[in-house]
Design goal:
Layout lengths: L3 H12 L1 H5 L16 E6 L3 H10 L5 E7 L3 H15 L6 E3 L2 H7 L5 E4 L3 H13 L3 E5 L6 H14 L3 E4 L6 H13 L6 E9 L10 H4 L11 H6 L5 H5 L11 H4 L1 H12 L5 E7 L11 E8 L6 E8 L8 E7 L2 E5 L7 E4 L7 H5 L4 E2 L22 E4 L10 H11 L9 H8 L5 H7 L3 E2 L2 H4 L2
Parallel strand pairs: 1-2, 1-4, 2-3, 4-5, 5-6, 7-10
Antiparallel strand pairs: 7-11, 8-9, 8-16, 9-10, 11-12, 12-13, 13-15, 14-15
Bound molecules: nicotinamide-adenine-dinucleotide.
């Protein structure tokens, strides 16, 4: 017998060419047939849940049926938000335990998981095995074996599993890769990549103290028994799970995962080795490094490339967060934030005037003066590159296109942009950065490091 979930996926694909012929992203006013409606539940209703929900509000054809969080206040807040945003007749069902939600909530098609990283694998595997399609936040897991179990579960159940590397569906990133790098080859040969996430001390401090230290707030926080049952142990670990080795991979996976994923996606390759160095030079009592620098080595058809990545939680200087693809003819410094995105043309590269005239690029601010100052080492100085910009920007919340891709895939209209296997292939090298830094050695990445 065909299940409702299979009907959503196959029904629209088999139904008529009309649906397949419709634009991939329906307008906000589009009405889906009831059979096309996707019933959604959430696991983990913290900060990122709100970000995802705010992006999902703009996507038609979704019905919110359940929410789960081990913190009563948060699950209540999430359900009320859904109720008021959509003037629902019935409150979405509230759960304090994910296993209970997945076994009891029969009228649900998809689960959006935004729990802490060490819960991703158990939650995703349980949800897939219960027959639901899953959108799970990055990093897939705090361990490579956890990530492997997610790929296996997705493939053995045949359910959809999208991993929340939202840049994979961002039109600016897709345009940059497809049009500028692959078709127009504006970078020439990409020999180096340079990426970073630099975050100030003020944004990197421990959180939750205001709640933990206020006796009046104690009743809204998880009990000691709940903290023990769900693997946190105490309230500091509950709020600051990103700082602990058994709960998270630390800054290199929390922040680095977004960007190292872009290195691998744009190069279409996995690195063959990684070397790294990290330290606790400011946040001295943390289990994870507060700053990490690493270098990946790639074999590419053009002759190889080297990628440097740094995550610093002690300064915001140095240009924020971006990934720079540095080639012999041009460099594309791309970021989820348009303000951090810049494109440079080497003075010796073929002209880009036609690309500008045809709207592929916009001209940026004029280049600075040529290298002639008294401090310039004239014999070696390069002429400053011309600056360009992308022709457009994303006019939606950054997570919306990736969620749209997930729901469109559920309706059989498109393939997932970041399914569990592709996410794993891209994330696998990241799991080896902390070990390389801890052991102070280069790790040569082979099958045992990179495969499921
Ligand atoms: N894609 C992005 O840009 C992006 C940005 C931020 C966070 N994230 C990811 O989103 C996830 C959540 O991050 P966050 O900042 O919202 O963290 P958070 O701590 O604010 O929220 C996590 C929530 O999960 C709940 N929770 C913990 N264990 C649970 C369990 N066993 N069952 C049900 N609920 C449980 C907590 O009570 C909390 O409300 C992380 O994986 C993070 O890496 C992704």
């Amino acid at each position: 017998m065909i299940t409702r979930r299979e009907f959503i996926r196959n029904g629209s694909a088999l139904g008529t060419g009309l649906v397949l012929g419709a634009p991939a992203i329906l307008s906000a006013s589009a009405k889906n047939a009831p059979s096309d409606e996707i019933r959604v539940g959430f696991i983990g209703c913290g900060k990122q849940h709100e970000v995802l929900f705010n992006a999902m509000k703009n996507i038609p054809g979704l019905r919110y049926v359940a929410a789960c969080d081990i913190m009563k206040d948060r699950v209540g807040g999430a359900a009320s938000r859904m109720m008021s945003t959509f003037s629902l007749d019935t409150m979405p069902k509230r759960y304090l335990d994910a296993e209970k939600m997945l076994s009891e909530q029969k009228d649900m098609d998809a689960v959006i998981i935004a729990s802490p990283d060490f819960w991703h694998a158990p939650h995703t595997v349980m949800a897939l095995e219960a027959g639901f399609d899953v959108y799970c936040e990055k990093m897939m897991s705090n361990t490579i074996d956890g990530a492997r179990s997610m790929v296996r579960a997705a493939e053995s159940t045949g359910r959809l599993c999208q991993i929340g590397h939202q840049r994979r569906s961002n039109p600016r990133y897709i345009y940059t890769l497809e049009e500028l790098i692959r078709k127009k080859k504006i970078c020439g040969q990409i020999v180096n990549i340079n990426g970073q996430w630099n975050r100030a001390v003020a944004s990197s401090r421990d959180i939750g103290g205001d709640l933990i230290n206020d006796p009046k707030k104690r009743r809204i926080l998880p009990s000691d028994a709940t903290l023990a049952k769900y693997g946190f142990g105490d309230l500091h670990r509950f709020f600051n799970w990103r700082l602990y080795r058994d709960l998270s991979g630390g800054p290199i996976s929390d922040l680095g995962a977004h960007q190292i994923d872009i290195f691998n996606w744009f190069l279409g390759a996995q690195p063959k080795s990684v070397m790294a160095s990290g330290g606790n030079n400011y946040f001295r009592d943390r289990e994870h490094f507060d700053n990490v620098m690493c270098i990946f080595d790639y074999d590419t058809p053009e002759g190889g490339a080297r990628a440097f990545y740094q995550v610093l939680t002690t300064t915001s200087a140095g240009g924020g967060y971006f990934e720079a693809f540095m080639g012999t003819e041009g460099t594309i410094e791309i970021s989820e934030r348009a303000a951090y995105t810049n494109i440079y043309r080497e003075s010796s590269a073929p002209s880009w005037d036609e690309l500008v005239a045809r709207g592929y690029l916009k001209r940026g601010a004029a280049a600075g003066p040529a290298a002639a100052g008294s401090d310039a080492i004239a014999a070696y100085e390069s002429a400053p590159p011309d600056k360009f910009e992308l022709p457009g920007d994303l006019n939606k919340p950054p997570h919306q296109p990736h969620l749209e891709n997930f729901f469109d895939a559920m309706r059989g209209k498109v393939a997932l942009n970041c399914d569990a296997r592709h996410a794993f292939e891209s994330e696998a090298p990241i799991y080896w950065v902390n070990p390389a830094a801890l052991e102070r050695k280069t790790i040569v990445l082979g099958e045992e490091h990179l495969s499921v």
